[in-house]
Amino acid sequence: MSTAPHLISGLGEIADRYDIVLCDIWGVIHNGRESFPGACAALERFNAGPGVVVLITNAPRPRSEIYRQLAKLQVPQGAYAEVATSGDATRKLLAERAPGPAWRLGPDRDQPLYEGLGLEFAPLEQAAFIACTGPFDDTFETPEHYRERLTAAAARGLPMINANPDIVVQRGDTLIYCGGALAQLYETLGGEVFMAGKPNRAIYDLALANAAEQLGRPVDRARVLCIGDGLGTDIRGANAQGLDVLFVANGIHGAEASDGGRLQPAAVERMLAAEGLHAAFVLSDLVW
């Protein structure tokens, strides 16, 4: 399969081919500090027509928390019809292991993930599994801060339920480590990891069910477009589901895909080929 994506001028150029857009959030419509007006306007225009936008994110929290975050970042409500989160998709995996106990690995802001699940928490030495959403403090911690503890956990055979498969995201101009980076390390140490977020099927099933409800009819998968900036999550997940994908190059891979802010199609093609991935379309930034 060719890995050369078609360079387009904006979403409007291909909008009539699709009924549904499944759009990544972080890196495509905001950077954690501010939203991108061009991307928001493009989604708002698609969502206002016959199409439906479902935001699909690896945020390890229920969608109610994401609605609040989007409002705070001034993402217009008209830019999307629904939100599907890795947190919502992961709650089933966590509920199946209740009451645990679990070693909770992640910041306090992710506490809503666990509400109502009947889970108990314990120190790592007493835990039956690891519930991971990311580092305790992503402002400075890296996976190496956890190598010793994760090595001990892997030796005990503790499974990890990871609610955020993203390796890194961009917060402002800085890349920060996410739960996926810890899961990646844990697997290299021999640990077993379970995930429901992108690129795994569960979150796509959830997002497409939401889209079908909004459309009021079954989904035609040939008329679904995924939009994202992460090769290992957004692009790999769309490819695994057989869905068309638009790669937004100036996201977390911007340094590799661009030169001085200018998109380098040949570089994008090499990146995709190296990962065995395919994108139907490519843009520097999401616009109409």
What's the quick description here?
The protein is an alpha/beta fold and 288 residues long. The protein has nine helices and 15 strands.
Overview features:
globular; alpha/beta; Rossmann fold; 288 residues; 7-stranded parallel β-sheet; 4-stranded parallel β-sheet; 9 helices
Q: How are the SSEs ordered, and which strands pair?
A:
Elements: E1 6-7, E2 20-23, H1 37-48, E3 52-57, H2 63-72, E4 82-85, H3 86-95, E5 102-105, E6 129-132, H4 147-155, E7 160-162, E8 168-171, E9 174-177, H5 179-188, E10 193-195, H6 201-215, E11 224-228, H7 231-241, E12 244-248, H8 254-257, E13 258-259, E14 262-263, H9 265-275, E15 281-283
Parallel strand pairs: 1-15, 2-3, 2-11, 3-4, 5-6, 6-7, 7-10, 11-12, 12-15
Antiparallel strand pairs: 8-9, 13-14
Could you describe the 3D structure shown?
The strands form four sheets. Strands 1-15-12-11-2-3-4 form a seven-stranded parallel sheet, sandwiched between helices. Strands 5-6-7-10 form a four-stranded parallel sheet. The protein has a two-stranded antiparallel ribbon with strand order 8-9. Helix content is 32%, strand content 19%. With 288 residues, it is an alpha/beta fold. The protein folds into two domains: 6-87 and 199-283, Rossmann fold (3-Layer(aba) Sandwich); 90-195, HAD superfamily/HAD-like (Rossmann fold), CATH 3.40.50.1000. A hairpin with a 2-residue loop joins β13 and β14 (262-263). The mean pLDDT is 94. The protein has helices spanning 37-48, 63-72, 86-95, 147-155, 179-188, 201-215, 231-241, 254-257, 265-275; strands at residues 6-7, 20-23, 52-57, 82-85, 102-105, 129-132, 160-162, 168-171, 174-177, 193-195, 224-228, 244-248, 258-259, 262-263, 281-283. The longest helix has 15 residues, at 201-215. The chain contains nine helices and 15 strands. It is globular, with a radius of gyration of 19 Å.
